[in-house]
Design a protein that fits this description.
By secondary structure, the chain is mainly α. It has a domain of 230 residues. Helix 3 packs antiparallel against helix 6 and helix 8 packs across helix 10. The longest helix has 46 residues. It is globular and about 65 Å long. The two termini are 24 Å apart. Keywords: Membrane, Transmembrane, Transmembrane helix.
Length: 349
Amino acid sequence: MEKLEDYVQGFDAESSDSDHHGMGALEILRETVRILRYNLSSFMAIAAFLICPLCALLLPNFLVDQSLPRRLSDRLMLLARSSGIPLVPFVSKSCQKFSETVISSAICFPLYVTLLLLAKAAVAYAVDCTYSRKKAHSSKFFMLIMKIWGRVLSTYLWACMVIVGCVIFFLVILVGVSTTFSALGSSDDFQLYMAVFEGLVFSVAFANAVIICNMAVVISVLEDISGLGALLRSSNLIKGRTQVGLMIFLGSTIGMAFIEGLFEHRVKNLSYGDGSSRLWEGPLLVVMYSFLVLIDFMMTAVFYFSCKSCRTDAPGGELHSIVDSTALSNEAVPIPIQPQMSEEFRHNQ
């Protein structure tokens, strides 16, 4: 116990020199690791019972009939050619990847609105318990989720509509601009460069939309707000912190894409040996992917608390814990808290 108290004093001394007006992406990652260490059992349970089964189904992608992405990819390439976009390997590969993502998302949507949404809510609850110095209990979480499931589901459906709307808007703009320049007699190279430029602009806008939607789900768990209101609340919270959110999104996306590529090469499309390595490489990559998903969910929750702690114009100027509001537990847990957040949470207690 003395060692723990010494660590807390050292932690507070280290945190006192940090920026109290918000954390950067690396600080959020460090804070996430600290929270994971001091509430390890709760987060490992979430990963084992919710995230791992989901990733074991999604990563191999065996729920999707592979003929469906090929059909959609062929239609997209036909649309691109009719719009004047040259069918270079990059365009063909992009159409194929986009088709696989769309079909997989549509078929696996029931998993997203159950296991994925439960995992996000559980992570947000566990992070909130950590900052509130409460113990996270599965029974109390399920009691809570029964009360707030309606608003969490509503927020997630609104987020899905926003994401789908962004994709449709991009496709309409891409086809419209490409058709216009094709009618004006532009060269194939110019058409390709324009398409790449539009894709880059869309990637930044799409990343912002995903960040807003992810935080909106956290807001629907931790605050009494849902649907469009949660999306607007999320957009307001990340003002001035967009760069931090983009760095978090970029890091998570690169990490997950790397694991997906390894799984594709080492497990799904084995091009070496007799295939015996699949017996241990497949489960190992699923576990690694699940851990990255867990860290991504945790960083989103920590990013929410970081944004809210530095928003002086937040309604009421206080942070309201779902743990306190539902009277889930009064048992304290010796978890070191960063100064910029702990003062507000202690004020509520």
